[in-house]
Amino acid sequence: MLRAETVGILAQTRNLLRGIFVLIGMGSILSPVSSQPWQAAPSRPFTHGFVNTVYQSRSTNGEHDQDLYQYWDIETEELVPGRARGAFSLRLNTDIDGRTGYAPGRGTYMYDLDPFYSVDDARDNEYADLFTGFVDLYDGSPADGYLRVGRQYLEEFDYIHADAITLRVPLTEWAKFTAFFGQAVSFYSGHDSDWTGGVALELQQSPGSRWLFEYHKYEDDIADNDSYGVETWQKLWEGAFFHAKFRGLDDQARDVTLNFSQYISPLDLTLLLDYQRLFSELEDESRHDSPLYRSGLCDWQPYNRFSARFDKALPCNIGLSGGVSVQRVSENEQSYGNRDYEHGDITLSFYPTDKWFYSISGEWWNTDPESSFFGYSGEIGYRPLKCVDWTVGSTYGNYVFRYEDERFGYLYREDPFVRTYYTGFRWKVNETNNLRVNFEYEDDDQDNDYYTLRCTWGQTF
Known about the structure:
Blueprint: H1 2-26, E1 46-60, E2 63-80, E3 84-95, H2 110-113, E4 127-137, E5 146-154, E6 160-170, E7 175-184, E8 195-206, E9 209-219, E10 224-237, E11 240-249, E12 252-264, E13 269-278, E14 303-314, E15 318-329, E16 341-350, E17 356-367, E18 371-385, E19 388-404, E20 411-414, E21 417-428, E22 433-444, E23 449-460
Antiparallel strand pairs: 1-2, 1-23, 2-3, 3-4, 4-5, 5-6, 6-7, 7-8, 8-9, 9-10, 10-11, 11-12, 12-13, 13-14, 14-15, 15-16, 16-17, 17-18, 18-19, 19-20, 19-21, 21-22, 22-23
């Protein structure tokens, strides 16, 4: 069965590549967005990237699921020398065992019918998700500005995913202008009549100071949203960095994020402080171009969130890291996925030699009302050769949670104790090929077992 499905996904790959090469010939190849500016391109075409092929098998209580994935990320410099470059990224999927083909009734969750159901594994046929794919057109060098055409992520605009045209041009040595217009893309809902567009101005007068101002609009048959933001990155002093971001939605403030980091060289210590304030409710009509805010994945009520973390190097090749975080929902308007909580974790690591690694960790969660988690874990790593890594570890966690039966309105309290054992192996076969194998076994005191095997063959070029 696996061999037939493998042939199917390879045939799908071949057909996709044929289409891509046709697009190259037409001068409209597609590509992913990088978070960093592209460097100066070579004078002749040069293609680089990676292809990962993943086989995943999961089983629990007599149920099983097998999937085969391929992830492509390819970039071509100087597609037309001095005029164009391009790239694309996509995922091919084959669900070997199929999926549940009917919707659950009232009081029944999809997980009860299909324990392997997830956002990334929700379809029962072969399909391809084109993440990015575009061509950049320019005159001489992309550093002097370019026009991007195709599917892309727009990092300045909340990482909107869109089939769009984007213009990026430098106004001066320290000012850059960006404008885009197109149709927002979603793999989770329809978007035939949606459109989005925006402008941004980036200012960087010194290496340690950068500002970004942006405005974008999204419109479909349900809502018409205007979003705007101001973001800054500042180097305050040696080892200290500050980041702040404010976003607005229509006529309301949306959220603000503050991040501070400090590296103290004499102590070999790194400190991280973060704060986030959500001012307005995010629901189904708030962000149509982001599935993370859709009501099916829970609305968000206003909240304050604080976190502090540290990473400390100790003598004798020992490291200590950890942190705490706290969230408080405004006016106690808690919901299923938006609650008050406290969280803490700590990890002690030991590197006695270049070949061996040991670590122990502890983690604690507490949510309101009366749900909590406490767990601890240990891991051993061994690297006999530069091209081979092996790890083995286990985690032990005690959950306490309450839930309501939607059919009868009863409240239940459960406290399962879960044990997880895992191992991983990595082999760098040569400069362009590598193999990863991971196996995990999860067991709890309610007689539930869960097995996961994941094999990845990676190729770079």
